[in-house]
């Protein structure tokens, strides 16, 4: 079945540091790929998405590129802020389980001032 | 603004009680989902529904049931609450076609004592 593997956390960075959170996937067909963010005590919010190979999703300074050849969708941000502290989830939809999302385990990010 | 609303942010119930968690969406989505989130285990799918009165088991349906009498409302039922069902419960919805993103509610933190 479909699966998503994220880099293990937690990740702690200083403000203005560069962020990369790795995500790789296994899926049949041509899934859409997503990054969700969860702030403390809240539900998940969609951060960005990409629906086909070589698409780049971007939002709030975060970017991720759909790489079919490496089955990856790594999240990057050039300069993190304290307010980016949250849990980040990589997910896919439309692989073998067409209707439901498959999530990675989540990566806790803490940004220190 | 799209909205998925869960009826409670926090609930405390006693062991053996029947518990209802309600979720309403205003986006006319066909798909609705219930996940639970536990530290170290990520998000796990309990049940989902792709139409009124339709339901499918997810990865961990034991001890739960669901009801979908109207398109906009999806209820999760704990028939006899147990302490191992203490968790964060997240409802989500999406359009029917595969590869669509899901929108999440704010979550219900359930504690069973």
List the helices and strands and how they pair.
The complex is a heterodimer of chains A (113) and B (113).
Chain A: E1 3-6, E2 11-14, E3 19-21, E4 23-26, E5 32-38, E6 44-50, E7 56-59, E8 62-65, E9 75-77, E10 86-93, E11 101-103, E12 107-112
Parallel strand pairs in A: 2-12
Antiparallel strand pairs in A: 1-4, 3-9, 5-6, 5-10, 7-8, 8-9, 10-11, 10-12
Chain B: E1 4-6, E2 10-13, E3 19-25, E4 31-38, E5 42-49, E6 56-57, E7 64-70, E8 73-78, E9 87-94, E10 103-104, E11 108-112
Parallel strand pairs in B: 2-11
Antiparallel strand pairs in B: 1-3, 3-8, 4-5, 4-9, 5-6, 7-8, 9-10, 9-11
Summed up, what is this model?
The complex is a heterodimer of chains A (113) and B (113). Chain A is mainly beta and 113 residues long.
In DSSP terms (H or I, runs of 4 or more residues), the helix count of chain A works out at: 0
Radius of gyration of chain B: 13 Å
Tell me roughly what share of residues is in helical segments of chain B.
Answer: under 10%
Q: Given the structure, what is the number of helices of chain B?
A: 0
Oligomer: heterodimer
Rounded to the nearest angstrom, the radius of gyration of chain A is 13 Å
Number of strands of chain A: 12
What is the overall shape of chain A?
globular
Low-confidence stretches of chain B: none
Strand fraction band of chain B?
over 45%
- Low-pLDDT segments of chain A: none
Largest binding interface between chains: A-B, 24 and 27 residues
What sequence of helices (H) and strands (E) makes up the elements of chain B?
A: EEEEEEEEEEE
Report the major sheet of chain A: 6 strands, mixed
Mean pLDDT of chain B equals 93
Task: Give the class of chain B from helix and strand content and strand pairing.
Answer: mainly beta
List how many beta strands of chain B DSSP finds.
11
| Classification by helices and strands of chain A | mainly beta
């Amino acid at each position: 079945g479909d699966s998503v593997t994220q880099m293990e956390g937690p990740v702690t960075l200083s403000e203005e540091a560069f962020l990369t959170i790795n995500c790789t996937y296994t899926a049949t067909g041509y899934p859409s790929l997503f990054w969700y963010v969860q702030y403390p005590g809240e539900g998940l919010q969609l951060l960005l998405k990409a629906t086909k190979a070589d698409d780049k999703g971007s939002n709030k300074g975060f970017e991720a590129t759909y790489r079919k050849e490496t089955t990856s969708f790594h999240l990057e941000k050039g300069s993190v802020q304290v307010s980016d502290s949250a849990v980040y989830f990589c997910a896919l939809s439309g692989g073998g389980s067409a209707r439901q999302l498959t999530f990675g385990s989540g990566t806790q990010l803490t940004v220190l001032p | 603004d799209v909205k998925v609303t869960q009826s409670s942010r926090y609930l405390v119930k006693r062991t053996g009680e029947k518990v209802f968690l309600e979720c309403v969406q205003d986006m006319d989505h066909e798909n609705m989902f219930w996940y639970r989130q536990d530290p170290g285990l990520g998000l796990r799918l309990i049940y989902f529904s792709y139409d009124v009165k339709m339901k499918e088991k997810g990865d961990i349906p034991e001890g739960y049931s669901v009801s979908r009498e109207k398109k906009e409302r999806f209820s999760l039922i704990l028939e006899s609450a147990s302490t191992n069902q203490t968790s964060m419960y997240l409802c989500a919805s999406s359009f029917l076609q595969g590869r669509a993103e899901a929108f999440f509610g704010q979550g219900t933190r359930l504690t069973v004592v």
